[in-house]
Specification:
The complex is a heterotrimer of chains A (659), B (447) and C (258). Chain A is built from 26 helices and eight strands. Chain A has 659 residues and is mostly helical. Chain B is 31% helix and 23% strand. Chain B has 13 helices and 22 strands. In chain B, helix 7 crosses helix 8 and helix 9 packs parallel to helix 13. Chain B is flat, with a radius of gyration of 27 Å. Classes of the chains: A mainly alpha (659), B alpha/beta (447), C alpha/beta (258). Chains in contact: A-B, A-C, B-C.
């Protein structure tokens, strides 16, 4: 009854050959990229694969992810059914049938039931795409109802339907089907048909299933469904360190600095581009995209893929591609404005279900623009010179750095005596508003009896902004300077009041061999509270208080609880959350060096964030970062909502400690 | 006369109460015997027993806070010593005598009158005022030097501002300013009349010409002076700021003549104009043909009317507005005040963001850095991004409702109050004052 | 074409200046140094000219001073100059503009430079004389305070800033000296490959004593800190009174109201 395998065998071999060839071609393209170690710590990597790939951890973080979860597992199980199907087509009688009935019967049931589930999921997905498509599924190069999406859904549905028809015809002809309830139900509809008709139906369904299966397989490497093949390895090859920490560069003559052409990316960057599922979640959360900037993280990944495919043939020959990677925006080319629009908030990194690393790619391209081309928004010239010359973004005399502490008496860090180095940071040292936070924190540390000291005029900027802006050469100098200073002074513990200093010192400086205990002030204050070293005599009255998560404290360092604990200890109430909070928090607009750039396109990121807050009519917005402070205060003023106060967590705590 | 050799008494240094400016222990570091110790307040205390009377600290002190103290006996000795040595000091070596003879040949104070098509830059009149004081001290006439085409009628104006004499070169070749012909002409006049002091405006033209002339006649030139005086040997003492105003320097040119100095506009006060004041007109000639001049002036361009090309970076008075102005229309109020003061209007980032002013007027981190003489900040709270762009202004006047606004930390003068009342009131008062004074001075060349 | 750019290394103007023990210069300890900003415009203009002429001209950049001056020269090389001349003089700060010009002229006299670029003035001394003096001593055409520069067929068309918004456009046949003012251009940010290349470019050291022949024309008698402007005065009172006080301040601080 099975179809003639003499016809099937060549078809199968041809399909497998073309599939393998397509995969080989793509892998060859990935191999064009620069080398990068992504196989270390295999245990940790495998654990990641289990949770992110098989557990679909990130996928499930959104309600509709359940549909994908079911489809994913259906797909895995049906993989077995399809192997069986293909084997039988090649060698009649060779397949699961040969196994004992005790194994075959449950499998029959499983395949039958799962196929139905898959069909339902496909239908749900189709309805969603056609009728209730969320805006982030589409963008300027694709639509929610793109032909490709519909084709794939259609093919999966066809496979399922063919599977059922095939089984139903067989049951109608030969009986059985006790463990295949769905197929059996369909077979009852076929009851009474002539056997020849049933045999023809079987043959037809079998061939449809076979052809569609082989077609689907060959479509994979040529579509966004490549992720079916690459997502699992991509989870394995993920960055085990903070993906927001960009790799160091080697400053030698004759090297390239940053990325100006697709082949200068690492192989993993290129592999990422083949792993994108086009789910659009990064696009949905991106503050730049949401406020009308030309940046779309998904588009960056897509453009890298298009660029790689188009330039691929030339690159494989060792030549250069024609399509520029950076230039006038078009498919396969990223515009400079898009690259400069990124706030490095990391929302894309945190949400991507397949762990694509968007942010480092943007920074790598910025590095090229800054270091090899000297091309950047003109406001940055001032910033870079100030950073190089005076080691702070405003170009204020370095001797002014420790001035805020002059009223507190001698507060220098003394090697061997002082426990905590208070790394004040540029904003905390120079910006009059942020200086109030610095003083508040100093008073809290004093109240808790913590031994702390500052470096005064010897402290230099941590280099966060220059690094995110792609000026790695200057960052490198600053990082080496600071690390040397910390080592000379025998610093063991550092507390910062700025999440940017915090993350840079803690994560980025690790690349320079600095492994110290670095605490953000929220963590230290929370510790002091829980250790009973800080007792609040009277709760601070802040009215309705909302806590705004700083990207570099929250998303980039998973510190969500500590600042909330501080607010709760100080006010006696857990702070309220923004609509978008914690991992999904919306950036204030100042990260990634955007603090120093004009925001000329679209609407203001800080306005969007402030509007989100004002919906809840808060009295106080609590922050944990001096940049957020500036952006939210400015946004509130622009919105005429000056009655809403913006306070740092340290100020709230200091208020509570006041007698 | 007593001929026994007297040892000159050296005295002991001591502090003049209330004069020390705590400059940073220069006296301490100048003392060769470590006889000076600085107090907490940065004032010196002198160990009399260590002092050897070298007077180095007295010389180094900028504030005149140290003096040499002599006992009455020492004073007596000093008088005798001076009587003995007075004559000796006058004995000069031949080179010195020659120098003095050369210096004595040069007499008179000149002010170079900078003009554009017959319109005189205000700084030249200011310099006539300063030059008059020098001339009076030196007891010599003050001359205005006018080079150009059709400029004879400027002489009377020069006399009315204090010139005793006008030296005029009037020829087509001088129609536009060019370094070479003007330099040659002025050097010719210097050779002929030998003035001891020449003052010019420290303007684009003045700096250019002064530098060239000083090179040709081989003399010293001090640019951008803020103070001019005459010492007891008829030398010009020139005071000027250096290092962006962080340090003042006194510069002398005691071995060369003429002594040349340039002065920025608005530094010296405008002298009183006395119409009808008379003087001597000296018309000179200098043989220079147009074809011998290599550089050609193609055009003169005035940006004065192109209001949107206002360069706030170079302005000397800026009236700047921020979010506190509440709306675009209110910037007109600032413009009125700026116009009355001869200044320009600037803005903070938030005012530019709101679309109230163009980006070219933005002062601050992502805008322009300005260093005007006067910066009037109206309704600007003073975020650090703004402060870094204007904190080097000579005088900052801040008007803001919020007494806590950070702008008051950099303000020389702060006014806690309503911008909408204070600014119009100031404009009215400036206007009234100008009307009372009458005869409005042509402001065209004063920024 | 042969281009010379004369640059000066100056202390960062944000530094806290203290007069030194001998009262004739500032205390050099603890200061950061950079290229005089006006000289950066000069370097940029020279490099733009070189690019305009298909990279054919050779740019020599010259600076006088102590060993640290090499940093400034390296930055100029990274911006696009071809070779550097360091005229070594630990005491360059004691030289007056006349002597500085003399040193430059001694070096440049037999080198046939077609065009010499320099800053309008230095940020530290700010005498604005050296450029003009060099032009005069070498008998070259000279235009100062440039805010616009064009080169065509052996002549420079320069837009000069005069005063109060008045500018003039002057045509200068080469050889010539020009001094550059703020607004002429935006100096480029040296790219990393160029910084690396600059390390290999020629840096010639010449002791200043072999070039200097002149005595100073003007001497600095003394340096002293300026009188502190009285700051932080908050005015109070009624409207008329405050406006009146302000007017008094304006009168005192400027000549506008006199």
């Amino acid at each position: 009854m099975l179809p003639d395998h003499h016809y099937f065998l060549p078809l199968f071999l041809l399909s497998v050959l073309t599939f393998c060839y397509s995969c080989y071609q793509r892998l060859q393209l990935v191999a064009v990229g620069a080398s990068e170690e992504r196989c270390d710590r295999p245990g940790e990597r495998l654990a990641g694969v289990i949770s992110y790939a098989f557990g679909q951890k990130r996928v499930l973080s959104r309600p509709f992810g359940l549909n994908h979860f079911v489809l994913f597992w259906a797909f895995l199980l049906l993989l077995l059914a399809n192997v069986d199907f293909l084997l039988q087509g090649l060698v009649p009688g060779f397949g699961l049938e040969a196994l004992p009935a005790a194994v075959v019967k449950p499998l029959d049931f499983l395949f039958d039931a799962v196929s139905l589930l898959a069909l339902v999921c496909v239908a749900v997905a189709l309805v969603r795409r056609v009728l209730f498509a969320p805006s982030y599924l589409g963008n300027d190069y694709t639509k929610a109802c793109s032909g490709e999406a519909l084709l794939i859904l259609g093919l999966i549905a066809t496979l399922m339907v063919a599977f059922f028809l095939m089984n139903a015809a067989r049951i109608a002809l030969t009986g059985g089907g006790g463990f295949q309830p769905v197929s059996a139900a369909i077979s009852r509809l076929l009851a009474g048909s002539r056997p020849t008709a049933l045999a023809t139906l079987f043959q037809a369904a079998w061939w449809v299933h076979a052809v569609v299966l082989l077609l689907f397989m060959n479509l994979l490497p040529r579509s966004k469904h490549m992720h079916i093949l690459t997502a699992i390895p991509n989870c394995f090859f993920r960055s085990l360190d903070r993906p927001s920490v960009e790799p160091r560069e080697v400053f030698e003559r004759g090297r390239r600095f940053g990325v100006s052409a697709v082949e200068q990316f690492s192989w993993k960057d290129l592999f990422d581009s083949f792993s994108c599922t086009e789910c659009g979640r990064c696009q949905d959360l991106c503050p730049a995209h949401n406020t009308g900037k030309p940046l779309n993280p998904r588009r960056i990944i897509h453009d890298i893929k298009v660029n790689l495919l188009q330039n691929g043939p030339a690159l494989k020959q060792g030549g250069e591609g024609d399509l520029p990677l950076i230039g006038a925006q078009g498919e396969g080319t990223c515009s400079e404005e898009a690259l400069w629009s990124c706030t490095t908030c990391g929302a894309c990194l945190a949400v991507c279900p397949v762990l694509i690393e968007h942010l480092p790619k943007i920074v790598k391209m910025r590095r090229h623009l800054v270091q090899e081309k000297g091309r950047f928004p003109e406001e940055l010239l001032n910033l870079f010179e100030n950073m190089e010359q005076r080691s702070n973004p405003w170009g204020i005399a370095p001797s002014e750095r420790g001035k805020w502490a002059s009223l507190l008496g001698e507060r220098s860090f003394k090697p061997g005596e002082t426990e905590y180095l208070f790394f004040v940071g540029c904003a905390g040292s120079f910006d009059s508003r942020a200086k109030q936070i610095t003083v508040a924190l100093a008073s809290i540390l004093d109240a808790a009896g913590v031994s702390w000291g500052i470096l005064g005029k010897d402290e230099i900027c941590c280099g966060d902004s220059v690094r995110r802006l792609g000026n790695e050469y200057v960052f490198d100098k600053m990082a080496r300077g600071n690390v040397q200073l910390f080592q000379e002074k025998g610093v063991k513990r550092i507390v910062t009041q700025c999440p940017h200093c915090f993350s840079t010192l803690k994560n980025d400086y690790r690349q320079y061999g600095l492994e110290l205990e670095v605490l953000h002030h929220s963590e230290l204050i929370a510790q002091l509270v829980s250790q009973g070293k800080l007792t609040v005599p009277k709760h601070a009255v802040m009215g309705k208080l909302l806590f705004h998560d700083s990207c570099y404290l929250g998303r980039h360092n998973d510190t969500f609880a500590a600042p909330r604990a501080v607010v709760e200890a100080a006010t006696g109430q857990a702070p309220g959350d923004f609509e978008r909070s914690r991992e999904n928090a919306f950036c204030c607009g100042a990260g990634g060096g955007r603090m120093w750039l004009e925001e000329l396109t679209g609407s203001r990121i800080n306005h969007e964030r402030v509007d989100e807050a004002l919906k809840q009519k808060p009295d106080t917005i609590c922050v944990s970062c001096p940049y957020c402070m500036t952006m939210l205060e400015d946004g509130l003023k622009d919105r005429g909502a000056e009655q809403v106060r913006v306070k740092d967590i340290a100020e709230v705590m200091a208020e509570a400690l006041k007698r | 006369m007593d001929t026994t050799k007297i040892k000159k008494p050296r005295g002991i240094a001591r502090l003049v109460a209330g004069k020390c400016i705590a400059c940073g222990a220069r006296c301490e570091s100048s003392c060769p015997v470590s006889g000076i110790v600085m107090s907490e307040a940065g004032e010196p205390s002198i160990h009399a027993e260590k002092c050897i009377g070298c007077a180095k600290c007295v010389k180094v002190c900028a504030a005149g806070a140290l003096e040499m103290f002599y006992t009455p006996e020492e004073l007596e000795l000093l008088k005798k010593w001076e009587a003995q040595h007075g004559a000796v000091e006058e004995e000069l070596d031949p080179a010195e005598r020659e120098l003095r003879a050369m210096l004595a040949q040069y007499r008179g104070v000149w002010v170079f009158i900078e003009q554009y098509q017959g319109e005189v830059a205000k700084v030249s009149w200011e310099l006539l005022g300063a030059g008059k004081e020098l001339a009076d001290k030196l007891k010599v006439p003050l001359s205005a030097v006018i080079i150009g085409l059709g400029v004879v009628q400027l002489c009377e104006e020069a006399f009315s501002y204090g010139a005793d004499r006008a030296i005029v070169l009037d020829a087509p070749v001088f129609e536009h300013y060019r370094t070479q012909p003007f330099c040659d002409a002025l050097c010719h006049l210097i050779g002929k009349h030998k003035p001891e002091v020449i003052l010019m405006g420290a303007t684009g033209q003045g700096r250019d010409l002064a530098g060239a002339v000083a090179t040709v006649v081989k003399t010293g030139l001090t640019a951008d002076c803020t103070g001019l005086g005459i010492d007891d040997k008829r030398n010009l003492m020139q005071t000027r700021p250096a290092f962006g105003g962080n340090i003042m320097a006194t510069i002398m040119c005691d071995r060369f003549r003429p002594q040349m100095a340039t002065v920025r506009p608005h530094v010296m006060a405008m002298p009183e104009r006395l119409p009808g004041r008379q003087g001597e007109i000296v018309v000179e000639e200098f043989d220079l043909r147009e074809q011998d001049v290599l550089a050609k002036v193609i055009a003169s361009i005035s940006d004065k009317d192109g209001k949107d090309q206002v360069d706030i970076a170079g302005a000397e008075i800026i009236v700047s507005g921020g979010r506190g102005l509440m709306g675009k229309e209110n910037f007109y109020m600032l413009k009125e005040l700026a116009d009355e003061l001869g200044g320009v209007v600037g803005a903070s980032r938030s005012a530019v963001d709101a679309g109230w002013m163009p980006h070219s007027r933005q002062v601050g981190q992502t805008g322009k850095t300005v260093r005007p003489k006067i910066y009037i900040a109206c309704g600007i709270s003073g975020a650090i991004q703004h402060l870094v762009g204007m904190q080097d202004s000579d005088v900052v006047i801040a008007i803001n409702r919020d007494p806590e606004a950070p702008i008051f930390q950099v303000a020389t003068y702060g006014i806690v109050g309503d911008v909408f009342q204070i600014v119009p009131a100031m404009t009215r008062m400036v206007r009234t004052l100008k009307e009372q004074r009458g005869g409005v001075i042509p402001d065209r060349f004063a920024v | 074409m042969n281009i010379l750019v004369c640059i000066k290394q100056v202390p960062d103007m944000e530094s806290r200046f203290k007069v030194n023990g001998t009262g004739d210069w500032y205390d050099e300890g603890d200061l950061a140094y950079r290229i005089n900003e006006y000289d950066e415009y000069a370097i940029e203009q020279a490099v733009q000219l070189k690019e305009q002429l298909g990279n054919q001209p050779e740019i020599t950049v010259l600076s006088i001073g102590a060993d640290r001056v090499a940093d400034a020269l390296k930055k100029a090389l990274a911006m696009g100059a071809d070779k550097a001349v360091h005229i070594q003089d630990p005491d360059s700060c004691k030289k007056d503009p006349w002597q500085i010009a003399d040193i430059i002229v001694s070096f440049a006299r037999d080198k046939n430079f077609d065009i010499i670029f320099t800053g309008m003035q230095s940020q530290d001394r700010g005498s604005a004389q050296v450029g003009v003096m060099v032009g005069e001593l070498l008998d070259l055409n000279c235009a100062t305070t440039l805010v616009g520069f064009e080169y065509q067929d052996g002549a420079v068309t320069a837009k000069r800033e005069l005063e109060g918004g008045v500018k003039s456009v002057v045509k200068l046949p080469l050889p010539a000296v020009v001094t550059c003012q703020l607004g002429l251009n935006v100096p480029r940010y040296p790219t990393l490959p160029n910084i690396m290349k600059a390390k290999k470019k020629e840096l010639l050291g010449i002791p200043a004593s072999t070039l200097l022949k002149e005595q100073p024309a003007a001497t600095t008698e003394k340096l002293y800190p300026p009188v502190k402007s009285g700051g932080g005065i908050v005015l109070e009172g009624d409207l008329g009174e405050m406006a009146d006080r302000l007017l008094g301040i304006l009168k005192e601080k400027t000549t506008v109201m006199k």
